[in-house]
Amino acid sequence: MRTTETWTRGPECSYSGSTIDDLPETGSFIASLNSMVSSFPSHANGRLRVISWNLLRRVGANVMDVCKLVKGHQPDLLLLQECTEDITELPSLVGGHFFRHPMQARIYGLAAWSPHPFPPSTEIRLPYSILPGRVPPRLAQIISFHGITIANVHLSHGQFLNRFQLRHIMEQMQGPAAIIGDFNAVGPVGFQGFSDIGPRMRTHRAGNIIALRLDRCIARGLVCSASEVLDKGPSDHHPMVLDMAVDTAFRAPSLEDSALLAL
């Protein structure tokens, strides 16, 4: 059976993004006194350790599970999907800096934590279906971190729609960049100068029957020196660990190159 989906980038979609004012950077002064955060290593050779985890909202991983992950693997940047408001307690437990962006008409949203200071993240609204019964529009959380633009995502389940959302995000990103999170994508992704650099292991089991690699990392101008998939714990998704660095051979696309990639 063939189905047709229609999407829009209508006027209600904000492409430029905005900051979340009611969730400011948390614990920046307390973090400097926190012994746990001060013990975080400064990774050599420009290596950046990123962990991404879909928490499965209120019935999955809780803030203590996230604390264990942080202490056990010491990420420079932690990206969370299906992050509920109770996870905002994380800085009070491990220090650091935290930004959360709730999603429209949902109890959860996207969040980023780091032991290192970083600018407030912004959000862009993604293309969405206009069919009856559609879910509310989704967001991408945009993070500027050590000269790299990172999009934290929880994309739609529709396979045409989530590719369209990916392309929309790519059009907003400059320089070395990565899109990381729960893609809900089956099959290959990666285009317009972005390559799939994440682990090739399954990260989710649908109904305890079919194992799928839904959690991905596609990047431009970055190399991944190591990656792994961790035990899923109480969530239905496995955390994904990536050790990345800027590719020294990377050349930002010229205006002519960008025009050709957009064709």
* Gap between N and C termini: 30 Å
Content-based structural category: alpha+beta
Question: What is the CATH superfamily?
Answer: Endonuclease/exonuclease/phosphatase
Q: What's the CATH architecture? A: 4-Layer Sandwich
Strand content: 25-35%
Estimate the global geometry from the Cα principal axes.
Answer: globular
> CATH first level: which class?
Alpha Beta
What count of domains describes the coordinates? 1
Number of E-type strands: 17
* Unreliable residue stretches: 1-42, 259-263
CATH topology: Deoxyribonuclease I, Chain A
Query: How many DSSP helices?
Result: 6
Fraction of residues in helix: 10-25%
Describe what this molecule looks like in 3D.
With 263 residues, the chain is α+β, with helices and mostly antiparallel strands. It is 17% helix and 33% strand. It has one domain: Deoxyribonuclease I, Chain A, CATH 3.60.10.10. The strands form four sheets. It has a seven-stranded mixed beta sheet with strand order 2-7-9-10-11-15-12, covered by helices on one side. Strands 5-6-4-3-17-16 form a six-stranded mixed beta sheet, with no helix packed on it. Strands 1-8 form a two-stranded antiparallel ribbon. The longest helix has 12 residues, at 159-170. The two termini are 30 Å apart. Mean pLDDT is 82; it is low at 1-42 and 259-263.
